């Protein structure tokens, strides 16, 4: 008979940090587990067995949200003792042990991930929408010059993500914006602002222009494009996984 418990934790950290800290902390089981799959920074799965639990299956999924990373964990196990006695043992001993161990583990994890996030540079991007079009910007200089991106930039220490988004749009485009909702998050490869390789992510919010005259202060070009024109642009490769969410947004507005 298979027993299971599910745990959901909201961690104030980007996807990469939540995933990496979770992996450093491991799992709260006193025996070794074998990695079955790992897809950084979205999921991992470990199997093992020990104590009263046979065939433990522990899966974790990391979902980006506007408030941080939602970590969805499932612990499944089979009891070594069959039948009614096994069910009784599960209710009185095993389940309580799993709950207590996971609770302590998750509290530690959430605090550690939040602390680690303070040292990781966060990049924010704005998908600015007008009617059925979204504003895209072509990077004017640097290694990624000529590639298309969402206007935005690095969040400064002590600054909120949305304050950074508003500031960057003012600096880069000379417009006031009203952020509307979180759209998605992708890991950024390589080093961002001298941080650890692969530690930063780009978190994109959609919004509307509420004032100002659009001027490309830092980009070589800005363009309002429809959903059908998105795919053909020469995007920064890291941004491509965000395009389905932008298309879906334009379709439903
Ligand atoms: N703004 C933006 N940056 C992106 C996107 N995709 C992507 O990989 N990046 C990367 C490029 C850079 O390594 C980093 C953002 O840095 P940035 O140079 O725009 O930041 P910033 O405006 O704060 O610039 P600065 O202080 O260095 O002048 O994120 C995107 O869609 N928008």
Automatic annotation (TrEMBL):
Single Gene Ontology MF annotation: 8-oxo-7,8-dihydrodeoxyguanosine triphosphate pyrophosphatase activity
Annotated coiled-coil segments of the chain: none
EC number: 3.6.1.55
A biological process from GO: DNA repair
Cofactor(s) the protein needs: Mg(2+)
Keyword Metal-binding recorded: yes
Domain Nudix hydrolase span(s) in chain numbering: 119-250
PROSITE patterns membership: NUDIX
Listed CDD domains: NUDIX_MutT_NudA_like
Catalyzed reactions: 8-oxo-dGTP + H2O = 8-oxo-dGMP + diphosphate + H(+)
Keyword vocabulary terms for this entry: DNA damage, DNA repair, DNA replication, Hydrolase, Magnesium, Metal-binding, Mutator protein
InterPro entries given in the database record: MutT-like, NUDIX_hydrolase-like_dom_sf, NUDIX_hydrolase_dom, START-like_dom_sf
Similarity comment: family membership: Belongs to the Nudix hydrolase family.
Protein name (Swiss-Prot/TrEMBL): 8-oxo-dGTP diphosphatase
């Amino acid at each position: 008979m298979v027993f299971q418990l599910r745990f959901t934790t909201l961690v104030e950290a980007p996807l990469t940090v939540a995933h990496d800290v979770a992996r450093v902390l491991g799992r709260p089981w006193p025996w070794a587990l074998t990695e079955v799959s790992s897809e950084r920074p979205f999921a991992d799965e470990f199997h093992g067995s020990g104590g009263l639990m046979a065939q433990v299956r522990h899966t974790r999924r990391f979902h980006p949200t506007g408030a941080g990373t939602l970590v969805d964990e499932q612990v499944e196990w089979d009891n070594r003792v069959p039948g009614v006695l096994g069910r009784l043992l599960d209710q009185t001993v095993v389940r309580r042990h799993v709950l207590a161990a996971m609770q302590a583990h998750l509290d530690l994890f959430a605090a550690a991930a939040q602390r680690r996030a303070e040292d990781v540079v966060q990049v924010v991007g704005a998908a600015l929408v007008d009617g059925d079009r979204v504003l895209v910007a072509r990077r004017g200089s640097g290694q990624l010059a000529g590639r298309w991106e969402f206007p935005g930039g690095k969040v400064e220490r002590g600054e909120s993500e949305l304050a950074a988004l508003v500031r960057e749009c003012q600096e880069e485009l000379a417009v006031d914006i009203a952020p509307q909702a979180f759209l998605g998050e992708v890991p950024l490869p390589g080093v961002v602002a001298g941080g650890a390789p692969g530690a930063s992510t780009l978190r994109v919010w959609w919004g509307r222009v509420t004032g100002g005259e659009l001027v490309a202060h830092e980009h070589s070009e800005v363009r309002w494009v429809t959903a059908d024109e998105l795919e053909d642009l020469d995007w920064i490769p890291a941004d491509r996984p965000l395009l389905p969410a932008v298309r879906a947004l334009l379709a439903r507005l």
